[in-house]
Amino acid sequence: MVKYLLVGLILLGAAADVGAGAWTLQSGQFWGKLTYFQQHTQEWYVGKGRFGAPGTRARYDFDGQYESRAVFFESMYGVTDRLDLGLQVPYFDQSFANAAFAAPRTDTGLSDIRALAKLRLLAKPLVLAFKVGVKMPTGEFKNEDGLIPVGEGQWDFDFVGQVGRSFWPLPLYGNIDLGYRVRTRNEQIDRDPGDEWFLNAELGYQLVRQLMLVGKCEVLRSSPAIVFGGIEAEIKRITYLTPALLYAVGHRTTVEAAVRFSLNGRNFPAGRQLVLGLATTLGKG
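Structure (tokenized):
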């Protein structure tokens, strides 16, 4: 069961998006964001059903409790008006405890770092961009029973198409990301975690001059994991719905507060996550 908790930990890192959808920075601009996640749950989505169908939401055995806290530092730099380079550095502190453990199983430290490049292909009538990313196995991977490691132990590669549009003069914008993640084999335990596709949709409305309401929907689906040459019954899926409020402090800094609700899933922790963020932009523009 603990291996399913790792899946939720991994998703946090994957879903904390770097940058503002399909839009790119101006040449010479720098964008940075610090984000805090927190989740505490006693429930998970049991891996039932076929072909990735949703699982049943159930309590962990032996009164199990999963708690995760994470901090992400994200940055983007505008190399040109059409090309951005970015980096994401996560730090995790997580634990799992139940009545069968003498003490909670914990692990804390830097997780796997992600790097990306985003190229804007069109500016009108829609903003269209293509993003590629790589997740490097920089976090420590420990193959110990009952332990939630901060690193996955393998490389991942993302390929994402992004479409965005401003509906001005209405104070409204929308963005959709559709991506595919190639996940390589963890050689240490001879495990192929299975590739994933994901969809992130976002709609934002400016309520007043400094306050914006944003709604986000995130969907992730995976192919079966393969272990020791056989197929393991570990198809993963999760759907999140996130309402968020963004408050502008001046022209360059934004404070974000959000709650991330899980709608359905399979082999993932259930429940809600608290998200707090602080973002700022430096340079011209």
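Confidence is low (pLDDT under 50) at residues 1-16. The two ends are 49 Å apart (CA to CA).
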